[in-house]
Amino acid sequence: MQLKYEPIIGLEVHAELLTKSKMFCGCEVVDSITAKPNHYICPVCTGQPGALPVLNKKAVELAVCVGLALDCKIHTESIFARKNYFYPDLPKGYQISQYDQPLAIDGKIQIETEAGIKEVRIRRVHLEEDTGKLSHADGHSFIDYNRSGVPLLEIVTEPDLRSSEEAKAYATKLHAILRYLDVNSGDMEKGVIRFEANVSVREAGSEGLNTRTEIKNLNSFRALVQGADYEIKRQTEIYSRGGIIEQETLGFNEATGKTYSQRGKESAHDYRYFPEPDLPPLVLDSDWIESIRASLPELPEAKTKRFIADFGLTPSEARFLTAELSLADYFERVLAKSKSPAKTVHSWIAGEFMRYVNDSGISIEDITLSPESFAKLIDMTADKVISGNSAKVVFNEMVKNGSNPEQIVQEKGLAQVSDESFIQDAVMKVLNDNPSEVEKYLAGKDTLLQWFMGRVARATKGKADPNVAKELLVKALEERRK
Ligand code: ADP
Ligand code: MG
Ligand code: ZN
After folding, report:
1. Across residues 132-145, what is the average pLDDT?
2. What pLDDT is attached to residue 371?
Protein backbone atom coordinates (compact mmCIF):
# COMPACT_ATOMS: atom_id res chain seq x y z
CA MET A 1 0.00 0.00 0.00
CA GLN A 2 1.23 3.48 -0.89
CA LEU A 3 1.46 5.64 2.24
CA LYS A 4 0.35 9.22 2.08
CA TYR A 5 2.58 11.86 3.63
CA GLU A 6 1.64 15.20 5.11
CA PRO A 7 4.02 18.19 5.25
CA ILE A 8 4.60 20.07 8.51
CA ILE A 9 6.14 23.52 8.31
CA GLY A 10 7.16 26.02 10.97
CA LEU A 11 8.52 29.40 9.92
CA GLU A 12 11.11 31.66 11.49
CA VAL A 13 10.97 35.16 10.04
CA HIS A 14 13.64 37.82 10.53
CA ALA A 15 12.51 41.39 9.94
CA GLU A 16 14.64 44.51 10.26
CA LEU A 17 13.00 47.24 12.29
CA LEU A 18 12.66 50.73 10.79
CA THR A 19 14.62 52.69 13.36
CA LYS A 20 16.92 55.63 12.62
CA SER A 21 19.82 54.20 14.62
CA LYS A 22 21.08 50.72 15.37
CA MET A 23 20.03 48.41 18.20
CA PHE A 24 22.84 49.08 20.67
CA CYS A 25 24.74 52.11 19.35
CA GLY A 26 24.05 55.49 17.75
CA CYS A 27 25.14 54.48 14.22
CA GLU A 28 22.69 55.39 11.50
CA VAL A 29 20.73 52.56 9.83
CA VAL A 30 21.38 52.93 6.09
CA ASP A 31 20.32 51.27 2.86
CA SER A 32 22.41 48.13 2.61
CA ILE A 33 22.58 48.28 -1.18
CA THR A 34 23.42 51.93 -1.84
CA ALA A 35 25.33 53.15 1.24
CA LYS A 36 29.12 53.22 1.16
CA PRO A 37 30.30 49.99 2.86
CA ASN A 38 31.72 50.22 6.38
CA HIS A 39 30.96 53.93 6.76
CA TYR A 40 28.21 53.53 9.36
CA ILE A 41 30.03 51.63 12.07
CA CYS A 42 31.52 52.26 15.50
CA PRO A 43 33.36 50.34 18.23
CA VAL A 44 30.06 48.91 19.57
CA CYS A 45 28.69 47.44 16.33
CA THR A 46 32.11 46.15 15.27
CA GLY A 47 32.73 44.44 18.60
CA GLN A 48 35.79 46.38 19.82
CA PRO A 49 36.98 45.35 23.29
CA GLY A 50 35.36 47.33 26.06
CA ALA A 51 32.61 48.90 23.95
CA LEU A 52 29.27 48.67 25.72
CA PRO A 53 25.78 48.31 24.23
CA VAL A 54 22.98 50.78 25.01
CA LEU A 55 19.47 49.64 24.10
CA ASN A 56 17.48 51.56 21.46
CA LYS A 57 14.06 52.38 22.96
CA LYS A 58 12.43 52.86 19.55
CA ALA A 59 13.37 49.30 18.57
CA VAL A 60 11.64 48.01 21.70
CA GLU A 61 8.57 50.11 20.92
CA LEU A 62 8.33 48.77 17.37
CA ALA A 63 8.80 45.21 18.62
CA VAL A 64 6.01 45.70 21.16
CA CYS A 65 3.79 47.00 18.33
CA VAL A 66 4.35 43.78 16.42
CA GLY A 67 3.81 41.61 19.50
CA LEU A 68 0.51 43.35 20.21
CA ALA A 69 -0.62 43.26 16.58
CA LEU A 70 0.02 39.50 16.56
CA ASP A 71 -2.08 39.11 19.70
CA CYS A 72 0.89 38.03 21.81
CA LYS A 73 1.39 38.17 25.51
CA ILE A 74 4.06 40.83 26.11
CA HIS A 75 6.50 40.02 28.90
CA THR A 76 7.05 43.00 31.16
CA GLU A 77 10.46 41.50 31.86
CA SER A 78 12.57 39.91 29.16
CA ILE A 79 16.24 39.03 29.03
CA PHE A 80 18.92 39.61 26.42
CA ALA A 81 21.18 36.63 25.87
CA ARG A 82 24.43 35.99 24.05
CA LYS A 83 24.25 33.48 21.24
CA ASN A 84 27.84 32.47 20.68
CA TYR A 85 29.21 31.38 17.33
CA PHE A 86 32.00 32.35 15.02
CA TYR A 87 31.39 33.80 11.58
CA PRO A 88 33.14 36.66 9.77
CA ASP A 89 29.90 38.69 9.61
CA LEU A 90 29.65 38.59 13.43
CA PRO A 91 32.52 40.68 14.78
CA LYS A 92 31.80 40.17 18.49
CA GLY A 93 31.80 36.40 18.15
CA TYR A 94 28.28 36.39 19.56
CA GLN A 95 24.93 37.86 18.65
CA ILE A 96 22.86 39.64 21.26
CA SER A 97 19.46 37.96 21.09
CA GLN A 98 16.77 36.76 23.44
CA TYR A 99 16.49 33.16 24.46
CA ASP A 100 14.46 31.71 27.30
CA GLN A 101 12.71 34.96 28.20
CA PRO A 102 11.70 36.58 24.91
CA LEU A 103 9.81 39.84 24.56
CA ALA A 104 6.52 38.25 23.49
CA ILE A 105 4.93 34.81 23.22
CA ASP A 106 1.71 33.02 22.25
CA GLY A 107 0.30 35.06 19.40
CA LYS A 108 -1.59 34.22 16.25
CA ILE A 109 -2.07 35.23 12.62
CA GLN A 110 -5.10 34.44 10.52
CA ILE A 111 -4.36 33.23 7.01
CA GLU A 112 -6.55 32.46 4.05
CA THR A 113 -5.96 29.89 1.32
CA GLU A 114 -8.16 28.00 -1.14
CA ALA A 115 -8.97 25.68 1.76
CA GLY A 116 -10.41 28.55 3.81
CA ILE A 117 -9.44 30.56 6.84
CA LYS A 118 -7.00 29.19 9.42
CA GLU A 119 -5.20 30.44 12.48
CA VAL A 120 -1.44 29.99 12.74
CA ARG A 121 -0.02 30.13 16.26
CA ILE A 122 2.97 32.38 16.91
CA ARG A 123 5.35 30.81 19.42
CA ARG A 124 7.55 33.80 20.13
CA VAL A 125 8.64 37.25 19.03
CA HIS A 126 12.07 38.37 20.17
CA LEU A 127 14.58 41.15 19.62
CA GLU A 128 18.08 40.66 18.32
CA GLU A 129 20.69 42.37 16.16
CA ASP A 130 21.48 41.82 12.51
CA THR A 131 24.88 40.64 11.31
CA GLY A 132 27.18 42.24 8.75
CA LYS A 133 26.84 41.39 5.09
CA LEU A 134 29.25 39.05 3.34
CA SER A 135 29.63 38.94 -0.39
CA HIS A 136 31.92 37.01 -2.66
CA ALA A 137 33.28 38.04 -6.04
CA ASP A 138 36.33 37.35 -8.21
CA GLY A 139 37.79 34.92 -5.73
CA HIS A 140 37.57 37.49 -2.90
CA SER A 141 35.25 37.84 0.02
CA PHE A 142 33.98 41.21 1.19
CA ILE A 143 32.40 42.20 4.46
CA ASP A 144 30.21 45.25 5.07
CA TYR A 145 29.48 46.01 8.73
CA ASN A 146 26.93 48.75 8.00
CA ARG A 147 24.18 46.22 8.73
CA SER A 148 25.91 44.91 11.85
CA GLY A 149 23.75 45.77 14.86
CA VAL A 150 20.62 46.82 12.94
CA PRO A 151 17.57 45.93 15.07
CA LEU A 152 16.07 42.65 14.01
CA LEU A 153 12.85 41.01 15.08
CA GLU A 154 12.50 37.24 14.97
CA ILE A 155 8.97 35.88 14.71
CA VAL A 156 8.58 32.12 15.13
CA THR A 157 5.46 30.04 14.45
CA GLU A 158 4.36 26.75 15.91
CA PRO A 159 4.62 23.91 13.36
CA ASP A 160 1.09 24.70 12.16
CA LEU A 161 1.54 25.11 8.42
CA ARG A 162 0.60 22.17 6.20
CA SER A 163 1.72 23.21 2.71
CA SER A 164 3.97 25.66 0.92
CA GLU A 165 0.78 27.50 -0.04
CA GLU A 166 -0.03 28.03 3.65
CA ALA A 167 3.56 29.07 4.31
CA LYS A 168 3.29 31.66 1.57
CA ALA A 169 -0.09 32.90 2.85
CA TYR A 170 1.42 33.28 6.32
CA ALA A 171 4.52 35.07 5.06
CA THR A 172 2.43 37.40 2.90
CA LYS A 173 0.11 38.23 5.77
CA LEU A 174 2.99 38.89 8.16
CA HIS A 175 4.65 41.10 5.53
CA ALA A 176 1.39 43.06 5.20
CA ILE A 177 1.04 43.48 8.96
CA LEU A 178 4.61 44.78 9.26
CA ARG A 179 3.84 47.34 6.52
CA TYR A 180 0.55 48.33 8.18
CA LEU A 181 2.48 48.94 11.41
CA ASP A 182 5.20 50.74 9.45
CA VAL A 183 7.88 48.88 11.41
CA ASN A 184 9.62 47.40 8.33
CA SER A 185 10.10 48.77 4.81
CA GLY A 186 8.83 45.58 3.18
CA ASP A 187 11.57 45.79 0.50
CA MET A 188 12.24 42.09 0.13
CA GLU A 189 14.87 42.62 -2.59
CA LYS A 190 16.92 44.48 0.00
CA GLY A 191 16.79 41.55 2.40
CA VAL A 192 14.87 43.38 5.12
CA ILE A 193 12.68 40.30 5.62
CA ARG A 194 14.17 36.82 5.49
CA PHE A 195 12.47 33.46 5.94
CA GLU A 196 13.68 30.17 7.38
CA ALA A 197 11.45 27.20 6.82
CA ASN A 198 11.52 24.19 9.13
CA VAL A 199 10.11 21.26 7.22
CA SER A 200 9.22 17.69 8.07
CA VAL A 201 6.77 15.19 6.66
CA ARG A 202 4.81 12.49 8.44
CA GLU A 203 2.32 9.81 7.57
CA ALA A 204 -0.99 11.54 6.93
CA GLY A 205 -3.22 11.21 9.97
CA SER A 206 -0.39 10.40 12.40
CA GLU A 207 0.21 12.52 15.48
CA GLY A 208 3.89 12.97 16.35
CA LEU A 209 6.41 15.16 14.56
CA ASN A 210 9.27 13.68 12.57
CA THR A 211 12.78 15.01 12.22
CA ARG A 212 12.88 18.37 10.47
CA THR A 213 15.35 20.16 8.32
CA GLU A 214 15.77 23.92 8.34
CA ILE A 215 16.14 25.87 5.10
CA LYS A 216 18.03 29.14 5.56
CA ASN A 217 18.29 32.22 3.33
CA LEU A 218 14.87 32.23 1.74
CA ASN A 219 14.65 35.84 0.66
CA SER A 220 11.46 35.92 -1.39
CA PHE A 221 8.00 34.36 -1.32
CA ARG A 222 8.97 32.42 -4.41
CA ALA A 223 12.10 30.99 -2.79
CA LEU A 224 10.05 30.09 0.29
CA VAL A 225 7.54 28.11 -1.78
CA GLN A 226 10.18 26.46 -3.98
CA GLY A 227 12.45 25.56 -1.07
CA ALA A 228 9.61 24.10 0.99
CA ASP A 229 8.20 22.15 -1.97
CA TYR A 230 11.59 20.76 -2.86
CA GLU A 231 12.19 19.66 0.74
CA ILE A 232 8.72 18.09 1.08
CA LYS A 233 9.30 16.05 -2.06
CA ARG A 234 12.83 15.05 -1.05
CA GLN A 235 11.76 13.87 2.41
CA THR A 236 8.68 12.06 1.07
CA GLU A 237 10.85 10.14 -1.37
CA ILE A 238 13.34 9.19 1.33
CA TYR A 239 10.59 7.91 3.65
CA SER A 240 8.89 6.08 0.79
CA ARG A 241 11.96 3.96 0.27
CA GLY A 242 12.42 3.33 3.98
CA GLY A 243 15.17 5.88 4.56
CA ILE A 244 15.60 8.30 7.46
CA ILE A 245 15.89 12.08 7.55
CA GLU A 246 18.90 13.67 9.19
CA GLN A 247 18.29 16.86 11.12
CA GLU A 248 20.34 19.46 9.27
CA THR A 249 20.58 23.03 8.11
CA LEU A 250 20.08 23.52 4.40
CA GLY A 251 20.82 26.29 1.98
CA PHE A 252 18.62 27.08 -0.98
CA ASN A 253 19.88 27.68 -4.49
CA GLU A 254 17.51 30.03 -6.35
CA ALA A 255 19.02 29.11 -9.69
CA THR A 256 18.35 25.37 -9.39
CA GLY A 257 15.35 25.52 -7.05
CA LYS A 258 17.10 22.89 -4.89
CA THR A 259 18.17 22.75 -1.27
CA TYR A 260 21.67 21.63 -0.32
CA SER A 261 23.23 20.54 2.94
CA GLN A 262 25.09 23.29 4.79
CA ARG A 263 25.82 21.69 8.12
CA GLY A 264 24.43 19.29 10.66
CA LYS A 265 21.80 21.09 12.73
CA GLU A 266 23.25 22.85 15.72
CA SER A 267 21.29 22.58 18.95
CA ALA A 268 20.71 25.33 21.45
CA HIS A 269 23.57 24.05 23.63
CA ASP A 270 26.03 24.55 20.76
CA TYR A 271 25.43 28.29 21.09
CA ARG A 272 26.24 28.34 24.80
CA TYR A 273 23.49 30.87 25.44
CA PHE A 274 23.89 32.90 28.60
CA PRO A 275 22.36 36.15 29.83
CA GLU A 276 24.03 39.21 28.30
CA PRO A 277 26.13 40.64 31.18
CA ASP A 278 26.36 44.11 29.57
CA LEU A 279 22.58 44.67 29.49
CA PRO A 280 20.15 44.61 32.41
CA PRO A 281 16.83 42.75 32.06
CA LEU A 282 14.45 44.65 29.80
CA VAL A 283 11.67 45.82 32.11
CA LEU A 284 8.61 47.39 30.48
CA ASP A 285 5.99 49.51 32.12
CA SER A 286 2.50 48.07 31.53
CA ASP A 287 1.08 51.57 31.02
CA TRP A 288 3.62 52.11 28.26
CA ILE A 289 2.57 48.82 26.64
CA GLU A 290 -1.08 49.86 26.88
CA SER A 291 -0.36 53.24 25.32
CA ILE A 292 1.30 51.46 22.39
CA ARG A 293 -1.74 49.17 22.11
CA ALA A 294 -4.01 52.20 22.01
CA SER A 295 -2.00 53.76 19.20
CA LEU A 296 -1.93 50.71 16.92
CA PRO A 297 -3.24 51.51 13.44
CA GLU A 298 -6.14 49.69 11.83
CA LEU A 299 -4.83 46.25 10.82
CA PRO A 300 -5.76 44.12 7.78
CA GLU A 301 -8.56 42.15 9.51
CA ALA A 302 -10.24 45.26 10.87
CA LYS A 303 -9.88 47.10 7.59
CA THR A 304 -11.40 44.16 5.70
CA LYS A 305 -14.38 44.12 8.06
CA ARG A 306 -14.86 47.87 7.67
CA PHE A 307 -14.69 47.68 3.88
CA ILE A 308 -17.39 44.99 3.92
CA ALA A 309 -19.63 46.76 6.42
CA ASP A 310 -19.24 50.37 5.26
CA PHE A 311 -18.77 49.96 1.53
CA GLY A 312 -20.87 46.87 0.80
CA LEU A 313 -17.94 44.99 -0.74
CA THR A 314 -17.82 41.19 -0.74
CA PRO A 315 -15.24 39.57 1.58
CA SER A 316 -13.04 38.65 -1.36
CA GLU A 317 -13.20 42.16 -2.85
CA ALA A 318 -12.35 43.64 0.54
CA ARG A 319 -9.49 41.21 1.15
CA PHE A 320 -8.04 41.94 -2.24
CA LEU A 321 -7.93 45.65 -1.47
CA THR A 322 -6.59 45.31 2.08
CA ALA A 323 -3.84 42.82 1.23
CA GLU A 324 -1.50 45.77 0.87
CA LEU A 325 -1.79 48.97 2.86
CA SER A 326 -0.75 51.13 -0.09
CA LEU A 327 -3.51 49.61 -2.23
CA ALA A 328 -6.15 49.99 0.49
CA ASP A 329 -5.13 53.63 1.00
CA TYR A 330 -5.21 54.38 -2.70
CA PHE A 331 -8.65 52.78 -3.03
CA GLU A 332 -10.02 54.87 -0.18
CA ARG A 333 -8.60 58.07 -1.64
CA VAL A 334 -10.20 57.39 -5.03
CA LEU A 335 -13.48 56.40 -3.40
CA ALA A 336 -13.54 59.60 -1.34
CA LYS A 337 -13.35 61.69 -4.54
CA SER A 338 -15.79 59.60 -6.59
CA LYS A 339 -19.60 59.68 -6.74
CA SER A 340 -19.63 56.05 -7.88
CA PRO A 341 -20.31 53.13 -5.53
CA ALA A 342 -17.38 51.28 -3.92
CA LYS A 343 -18.00 48.23 -6.10
CA THR A 344 -17.42 50.27 -9.24
CA VAL A 345 -14.25 51.79 -7.82
CA HIS A 346 -13.09 48.32 -6.73
CA SER A 347 -13.50 46.91 -10.23
CA TRP A 348 -11.49 49.74 -11.71
CA ILE A 349 -8.73 49.23 -9.13
CA ALA A 350 -8.74 45.44 -9.51
CA GLY A 351 -8.89 45.72 -13.31
CA GLU A 352 -7.27 48.54 -15.23
CA PHE A 353 -5.25 49.90 -12.30
CA MET A 354 -3.67 46.57 -11.25
CA ARG A 355 -2.95 45.70 -14.86
CA TYR A 356 -0.99 48.92 -15.09
CA VAL A 357 0.80 48.33 -11.78
CA ASN A 358 1.79 44.80 -12.81
CA ASP A 359 2.85 45.71 -16.34
CA SER A 360 4.83 48.77 -15.35
CA GLY A 361 6.38 47.31 -12.21
CA ILE A 362 5.86 50.68 -10.51
CA SER A 363 5.04 50.38 -6.84
CA ILE A 364 1.69 51.78 -5.76
CA GLU A 365 3.35 54.41 -3.55
CA ASP A 366 5.10 55.80 -6.62
CA ILE A 367 2.07 56.03 -8.90
CA THR A 368 1.55 59.57 -10.13
CA LEU A 369 -2.07 59.13 -11.23
CA SER A 370 -3.95 61.33 -8.79
CA PRO A 371 -6.95 59.84 -7.00
CA GLU A 372 -8.95 62.91 -8.10
CA SER A 373 -8.33 62.28 -11.81
CA PHE A 374 -8.96 58.58 -11.44
CA ALA A 375 -12.25 59.23 -9.62
CA LYS A 376 -13.26 61.70 -12.33
CA LEU A 377 -12.64 59.10 -15.02
CA ILE A 378 -14.67 56.49 -13.16
CA ASP A 379 -17.56 58.93 -12.77
CA MET A 380 -17.43 60.07 -16.39
CA THR A 381 -17.71 56.44 -17.45
CA ALA A 382 -20.56 55.76 -15.03
CA ASP A 383 -22.36 58.87 -16.32
CA LYS A 384 -21.88 57.61 -19.87
CA VAL A 385 -19.92 60.70 -20.83
CA ILE A 386 -17.50 58.25 -22.42
CA SER A 387 -17.85 54.57 -23.32
CA GLY A 388 -16.06 51.80 -21.44
CA ASN A 389 -13.63 51.34 -24.31
CA SER A 390 -12.80 55.02 -24.51
CA ALA A 391 -12.32 55.04 -20.73
CA LYS A 392 -9.47 52.55 -21.10
CA VAL A 393 -7.84 54.77 -23.69
CA VAL A 394 -8.17 57.75 -21.37
CA PHE A 395 -6.79 55.74 -18.43
CA ASN A 396 -3.67 54.76 -20.36
CA GLU A 397 -3.16 58.35 -21.42
CA MET A 398 -3.61 59.56 -17.83
CA VAL A 399 -1.00 57.23 -16.33
CA LYS A 400 1.44 58.18 -19.08
CA ASN A 401 1.00 61.94 -19.16
CA GLY A 402 -0.74 62.74 -15.92
CA SER A 403 -3.23 65.02 -17.64
CA ASN A 404 -6.81 65.22 -16.43
CA PRO A 405 -9.45 63.00 -18.02
CA GLU A 406 -11.72 65.79 -19.27
CA GLN A 407 -8.87 67.31 -21.22
CA ILE A 408 -7.96 63.96 -22.79
CA VAL A 409 -11.57 63.26 -23.75
CA GLN A 410 -11.77 66.63 -25.39
CA GLU A 411 -8.43 66.41 -27.17
CA LYS A 412 -9.12 62.94 -28.49
CA GLY A 413 -12.78 63.65 -29.27
CA LEU A 414 -13.90 60.68 -27.19
CA ALA A 415 -17.07 62.13 -25.70
CA GLN A 416 -19.89 59.67 -26.04
CA VAL A 417 -22.86 60.91 -27.98
CA SER A 418 -26.40 60.00 -27.10
CA ASP A 419 -27.78 62.53 -29.55
CA GLU A 420 -30.29 60.38 -31.44
CA SER A 421 -30.06 62.02 -34.85
CA PHE A 422 -26.27 61.52 -34.96
CA ILE A 423 -26.64 57.86 -34.07
CA GLN A 424 -29.67 57.42 -36.33
CA ASP A 425 -27.62 58.63 -39.31
CA ALA A 426 -24.98 56.01 -38.58
CA VAL A 427 -27.62 53.28 -38.17
CA MET A 428 -29.23 54.08 -41.50
CA LYS A 429 -25.87 54.15 -43.25
CA VAL A 430 -24.87 50.76 -41.81
CA LEU A 431 -28.18 49.16 -42.87
CA ASN A 432 -28.08 50.69 -46.35
CA ASP A 433 -24.48 49.57 -46.87
CA ASN A 434 -25.20 45.98 -45.83
CA PRO A 435 -28.43 44.81 -47.48
CA SER A 436 -27.60 41.09 -47.44
CA GLU A 437 -26.94 41.10 -43.67
CA VAL A 438 -30.25 42.91 -43.21
CA GLU A 439 -31.97 40.22 -45.22
CA LYS A 440 -30.39 37.43 -43.15
CA TYR A 441 -31.32 39.17 -39.93
CA LEU A 442 -34.91 39.54 -41.04
CA ALA A 443 -34.89 35.86 -42.03
CA GLY A 444 -34.21 35.02 -38.41
CA LYS A 445 -30.43 35.28 -37.83
CA ASP A 446 -30.76 37.31 -34.61
CA THR A 447 -27.08 37.08 -33.75
CA LEU A 448 -26.36 39.61 -36.49
CA LEU A 449 -27.62 42.37 -34.19
CA GLN A 450 -24.27 42.27 -32.42
CA TRP A 451 -22.49 42.58 -35.75
CA PHE A 452 -24.60 45.65 -36.66
CA MET A 453 -23.76 47.13 -33.24
CA GLY A 454 -20.08 46.73 -34.04
CA ARG A 455 -20.54 48.48 -37.40
CA VAL A 456 -22.38 51.38 -35.76
CA ALA A 457 -19.65 51.67 -33.11
CA ARG A 458 -17.08 51.82 -35.86
CA ALA A 459 -19.03 54.35 -37.89
CA THR A 460 -19.33 56.62 -34.85
CA LYS A 461 -15.72 56.01 -33.73
CA GLY A 462 -16.97 54.44 -30.50
CA LYS A 463 -18.78 57.56 -29.45
CA ALA A 464 -22.34 56.28 -29.73
CA ASP A 465 -24.04 55.36 -26.49
CA PRO A 466 -24.49 51.60 -27.04
CA ASN A 467 -27.94 51.49 -25.44
CA VAL A 468 -29.28 54.19 -27.70
CA ALA A 469 -27.61 52.61 -30.71
CA LYS A 470 -29.16 49.24 -29.96
CA GLU A 471 -32.62 50.68 -29.56
CA LEU A 472 -32.41 52.61 -32.84
CA LEU A 473 -30.99 49.60 -34.69
CA VAL A 474 -33.76 47.28 -33.58
CA LYS A 475 -36.36 49.87 -34.51
CA ALA A 476 -34.87 50.49 -37.96
CA LEU A 477 -34.57 46.76 -38.65
CA GLU A 478 -38.16 46.12 -37.60
CA GLU A 479 -39.32 48.87 -39.91
CA ARG A 480 -37.69 47.05 -42.83
CA ARG A 481 -39.75 43.98 -42.03
CA LYS A 482 -42.93 45.75 -43.09
P1 ADP B 1 15.34 26.15 16.94
O2 ADP B 1 15.14 27.34 17.82
O3 ADP B 1 16.37 25.23 17.40
O4 ADP B 1 15.50 26.50 15.50
P5 ADP B 1 12.58 25.33 17.59
O6 ADP B 1 12.23 24.04 18.17
O7 ADP B 1 12.38 26.54 18.44
O8 ADP B 1 14.03 25.23 17.03
O9 ADP B 1 11.70 25.49 16.30
C10 ADP B 1 11.99 26.34 15.29
C11 ADP B 1 10.89 26.25 14.27
O12 ADP B 1 10.75 24.92 13.78
C13 ADP B 1 9.51 26.62 14.80
O14 ADP B 1 8.88 27.43 13.84
C15 ADP B 1 8.80 25.31 14.95
O16 ADP B 1 7.42 25.47 14.73
C17 ADP B 1 9.41 24.50 13.84
N18 ADP B 1 9.42 23.04 14.06
C19 ADP B 1 9.76 22.40 15.18
N20 ADP B 1 9.67 21.05 14.99
C21 ADP B 1 9.25 20.86 13.72
C22 ADP B 1 8.98 19.70 12.93
N23 ADP B 1 9.13 18.47 13.39
N24 ADP B 1 8.57 19.90 11.65
C25 ADP B 1 8.42 21.14 11.15
N26 ADP B 1 8.68 22.26 11.86
C27 ADP B 1 9.08 22.13 13.12
MG1 MG C 1 15.93 27.91 13.91
ZN1 ZN D 1 27.70 51.42 15.74
Report:
1. 95
2. 93
Q: Strands 213-218 and 248-253, how do they pair?
A: parallel
Task: From the CA of 157, give the closest atom in ligand 1.
Answer: 14
Specify the DSSP class assigned to residue 96: E
How far is Cα 149 from Cα 360, in angstroms, rounded to an integer? Answer: 36
Pairing between strand 104-113 and 116-129? antiparallel
Average pLDDT of span 228-232: 97
Question: Ligand 1 center to residue 159 CA distance, Å?
Answer: 6
Rounded to a whole number of angstroms, the distance between the first and last alpha carbons of the chain is 76
Residue 38's CB is within 10 A of a number of other CB atoms, namely 14
What SS3 state is found at 154?
A: strand
Task: Give the model confidence (pLDDT) of 255-300 as tens digits.
Answer: 999 999 887 766 767 899 999 999 999 999 999 999 999 999 999 9
Same domain, yes or no: 115 and 199:
yes
Ligand 1 near 159 CB (within 6 A): yes
Structurally, the chain folds into a number of domains equal to 3
User: In terms of Cα–Cα distance, which of 130, 35, 141, 36 is closest to 92?
Assistant: 130
358-367 own/partner pairs: CB under 8 Å, 24+ apart: 360/399, 363/326, 364/324, 364/326, 364/327, 364/330, 365/326, 367/330, 367/399
Of the three residues 363, 396, 412, the one that is the final residue of a domain is 412
Q: Looking at the structure, tell me whether residues 237 and 384 fall in a common domain.
A: no
DSSP secondary-structure letter at 47?
T
For residue 365, the model assigns a pLDDT of 87
The verdict on 324 and 452 lying in the same domain is no
- Centre of ligand 2 from the C-alpha of residue 236, in Å: 22
Q: What is the pLDDT of residue 383?
A: 85
Residue 354 Cα to ligand 2 middle (Å): 37
pLDDT confidence of 232, banded at 50, 70, 90? very high
Q: What is the CATH number of the domain that holds 476?
A: 1.10.10.410
Residues 322-370 pLDDT 10s = 999 999 999 999 999 999 999 999 999 999 999 999 999 888 988 889 9
- Residues 283, 314 share a domain: no
> Which residue minimizes the CA distance to atom 11 of ligand 1?
10
